[in-house]
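Proteins fold reproducibly. Take a tokenised chain:

. . .
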Amino acid sequence: MKIAVIHSIYKPHVRGGAEVVVSNIVSGLKKRGHDVFVVSIGYENITEEVDGTKVYRIKPFNLFNFLDINGQPVWKRLIWHIFDMFNDVQTWQLHKILAEEKPDMALTHSLMGLGFEIPALLKIMKIRNIHTIHDMQLIHPSGLLGEEDKMPLSTQMYSWLCRLLFGSPQAVVFPSLYMKEIYERLGFFKKSKSAVLGNPLPADAKFGIAKQETGKFTMAYVGQIEPYKGVVDLIKIVSGLAGDWELLIAGDGSAMREATKWSLDNPRVKLLGRLDAEELEQKIWSKADLLINPSKVQESFGLVVVEAYARGIPVLASSIGALKDLVKERETGWLFKSGDQLDLKRSIEFIMSNQDQIKVMKDNCVKEAEKFRLENYLNSMMQL
């Protein structure tokens, strides 16, 4: 089968977990013998090969490139979003690519930056479409959501327009039941087949307990260094902990400067920057006793949680969004009240005082990660 994979960002550009998931899916489909090509954003209109896959880069026709959106002021973003939602120029560019390639099916993912007219284009061209939800991008332009029942009028209007533009693709994949319930409650995808498929691990993911005994309690955070991720609060909290411990932080983002400031006086907090898979294995998974996900926003899934599970590492996470379903209390980890710094500190202190529980959980974590193998994901997706 010839398959178009359409996603705003594709390697070497990476912003978050969605890019990792899309890369894993492309790799898995190619190994199954499918003819796969990718359409994403670039700084120029070019066609290139990335790891043996044809990638079409479309230069956005807008105020600025989506790849640079994080550094733009709010007023510019507002105008940009309006152009992005109704971007005939980019839709026409995609039309030319699809007309030339003639795919049997299109797998669409995050489309912000490419344009929200794409689902309608695929329908007109009679190309089967499975759309995968990665975040709250169709409900809130930031892709983040606090209390979804308290959306201001502007956000409600944005959500209504997205619902209208996307309509009902043949099938929609949600990474969690939590996400499915929110989108369906807001009236999205009424005529689409749907499935809940947790984001898959890469085909070459390692399974099994990786911990090398170091004699100290090692905590880890892996992800974006952004205010809404709660990582700066985590640094402040652990700085007051007693005992022999260290906190390893992998990632980068707009809050990196603040994170650095709060860790300067504590050599036990180590900022490692963005790490690739091999570096994560060496510097995080082989050392960590506990992964901490202190997110303050409704997470759609939490691939890093599953990555930790695969290496036998329990997780302490906020009881918010999909995390509260992904982490099984006292089986694969613990939950604390989101945004409650005192509860987070107490949870860490409890775990440090009861490290024997971690040893019991390790096998549970590896078994839980088995559910998220790429082969299982692709089997279920292709059944749609």
About this structure: The radius of gyration is 21 Å. Residues 217-371 form a domain with the Rossmann fold fold (CATH 3.40.50.2000).
